Amino acid sequence: MVMKKLINHPDRVVDELIEGYVLANPKLVRKHPRVNAILRVDAPVADKVGVVIGGGAGHEPLFLEYVGPGMADASAHGQIFAAPAPELILEAIRAVHAGKGVMLLYNNYAGDCLNFDMAQDMAREEGIEVETVRVNEEIASAPKGSEADRRGTTADHVVIKMAGAASESKLPLAEVVRITQKAVDGSRSLGVGLSSCTTPATGREIFEIGDDEMEIGMGLHGEPGVERMKMLPADATVERMIPRLVEDLPYQSGDEIVLVINGYGATTRMEMFIVNRKIRSMLAERKIGVYATDIGEYCTSQEMKGLSITFVRMDDELKRYFDMPCQCPFYVRY
Amino acid sequence: MQSLNRDYWQKTFANLATAFENEKVALCQMDGVIGDGDHGASMARGFAEALAQFPALGDSPEIAAMFSTTGNAFLGKVGGVTGVIFGTFFIEAGKKAEGLPETDPGALTAMLDAALQAIKKRGKVQEGDKSMIDALAPAVDALKERIENGSDWKEILEALAESARQGSEATRPMAAKVGRVRYQKEKGVGHVDPGSVSVAIFFRTLKESLA
Q: CA B184 → CA A196, A215, A219, B6, B188, distances in Å?
């Protein structure tokens, strides 16, 4: 597949997408004057723990569009699919620090861990209190028992919401960390990829998959999954995914979850709704309750076809933070 | 015995920028097989950014300043795994070069050893994990061995370049324990680690810059 995108030059993709985003949302966000970080217009917010998210670009709306009241205070952007540099993250930390400390929240990839860890060390040397929560809910990326090796993906959508609400409640840093970590610990995701995507960095497809094939557990960057097979109908696909998700944590009878169905970039809402009804019937059979459902594009991979399913286990405390208002351009709760 | 003075290092950093520009595409293709395909571009960008900042250091910059400027260019302008790992390499090596008008074999050992230890700690990586460490660690060992034997710079740098090259080649059959490639079914077996190739290019350039 030849790359077919409305871009100007590969080296300018990230700068230009950030510029265009900020122009569209001037009341909500501004760009850091020197680096590719998006900040809340009112950052730093007094008496509030700063929440800094970030990662490679190319997954929009993640991370770019998750900055706003009740969500993150800043997002630090790397190049396409590449982690942001430590200095960039450090600038984001400084920009949102209001004296109450800063929490770094990002996905558990080697490049992100290295760069955010280094930024954390640098900020601590400046006397800023910084803690880290890594999202690692994708079950195909490493077996049970090796959770520390797992990648983070769409759980970000709910986890960032929790972190934003907890920090907006003016809780101390340790509490914001505890609540965010609880949301991560109760999260599990599994995806199915139907087609590859092309990346502006190289202009090429990032992996190969047959026209009649699908792969369960495929990663956002084409990382191999757990099972490649001939295309199946929606219900049969969901039947292969839900047991893996339920059994991994495990989610038990009586549990309540937030359900997220995430399109990878070229998936129709039609397909997502069809998938949702099968997920709901399978959850009902297992007496797992659905507290809320979000269906849309949250964590994409360019024009990749396919979707991911995320469960986030809720308790009374997490429900409270999930229900608090938040505002970012594509996602509002009130 | 020829010394590795400021002139040598100035020439070497310029040669490194050229070498990595020349190897950029090959390194990216290597990385494309087992990583995210950015390694060659990242290395070339790091050295080019560093070289652009050298004029601000004056006509005859301090060795430590050249290393720290290069390290900061990698840290600030590159991103990804490459930016942090090679940024750490140059920053930690540079700290051990502080105030030195030239790097004698003992100083070079201290610089490389400090860089090696810092990368192992930062990257949480060990020998045999299939990383740039697998080229760097044998090079440091070769350096120590050559010093004990009283070798001259030519012999030392040849030994460094050769041991790094062999160390890089030795990553080919390894199953990766770090980085994105560990998620692949084959864990990179059959492919050399691109970071280790960059270490080999680094030491090869040191050797060639002596002439």
A: 16, 14, 10, 44, 7
- Do A168 and A195 belong together in one domain? no
Beta-strand relationship, A289-296 and A306-314: unpaired
Catalytic residue at A59? Answer: yes
Task: Give the minimum alpha-carbon distance from B128 to chain A in angstroms, rounded to a whole number.
Answer: 17
**Does residue A145 sit in the same domain as residue A200?**
no
Q: Quickly list DSSP for A215-234.
A: EET--TT----SEEEE---H
Length of chain A: 334
Strand, coil or helix: what is A114? helix
Tens-digit pLDDT profile for residues B73-126: 998 888 888 999 999 999 999 999 999 999 999 999 999 999 999 999 998 899
Same domain, A134 and A22: yes
CB contact under 8 A, A114 and B81: yes
For residue B50, give both structure tokens.
């560093």
Asked if the structure places residue A300 within a domain, the reply is yes
Query: Is position A328 within any domain?
Result: no
* DSSP-derived 3-state class of residue B187: coil
Final residue belonging to a domain, choices A160, A186, A212: A186
Write the CATH number for B83: 1.25.40.340
A115 touches chain B (CB under 8 A): yes
Question: Is-contact B79 A90, C-beta < 8 A?
Answer: no
**A115 to chain B nearest CA, in Å?**
6
pLDDT digits (tens, 9 = 90+) for B12-45: 999 999 999 999 888 877 877 777 677 888 899 9
Tokens at residue B193, please?
Answer: 């680690």
SS3 A332: strand
Looking at the structure of chain B, the number of domains it has is 1
CA distances from A42 to A17, A45, A52 (A): 22, 6, 14
CATH value at residue A31: 3.40.50.10440
User: Is residue A334 situated within a structural domain?
Assistant: no
Cβ–Cβ under 8 Å, residues A165 and A180: no
Yes or no, beta carbons of A115 and B78 under 8 Å apart: no
Please state the domain count of chain A. 2
Pairing of strands A256-263, A289-296: parallel
- Domain holding A226, by residue range, is 187-321
* List A9, A32, A59, A157, catalytic entry: A59
Q: Residue B101 and residue B94: Cα distance in Å, rounded? A: 13
Domain extent for B65: 4-209
Q: Are A37 and A159 in a shared domain?
A: yes
